[in-house]
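Student: Send me a single protein entry containing the residue sequence and its fold in token form, directly below this note:

Tutor:
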Amino acid sequence: MIIDINKFLSSDALSLKINENFVIDDKEFLSRTNLNENIELKGEIFKLRDGISFTGAVIYTFEDECARCLKEFENKIENKFQAAIVPEEDEESDEVQFVIKDRTVIMGEAIKQLIYMSMPMKTLCSKDCKGLCPTCGVNFNYEKCQCENTLTDPRFDKLKDLLKN
């Protein structure tokens, strides 16, 4: 993704609002992340005394599987971030950086890294997902199973003997 900021840099304006939709065309990245290729970038570019910065968010969706009930669903993430806009990428820096070249901001690789790093390791289809029965596999979100829930942790079996007296 490339954003032309030539007019902004030549003007007296201190900030430039960005609201861009773009497509990631890296098929390997898309297949590895199950990412929808349409990405939204919202934010603002600021002129600072010592450079240029970007504050905003990248919004994306991807196909995911619930960690409790294993249902497939589309997950939407909004990752807010701040980035420095620099003439040359500094490999030693810990901050997010977009490179400016010929008065255009090149964001492609940095956006992919932001997406990859912000993807959750485990997700739920909803906050109140009830999961699956460990015995019969019934999805508790839709029905109740007929299993006798007698599963216990064997480490606590001695405690049951105390309740018998």
Summary: Residues 2-128 form one domain. The mean pLDDT is 88.
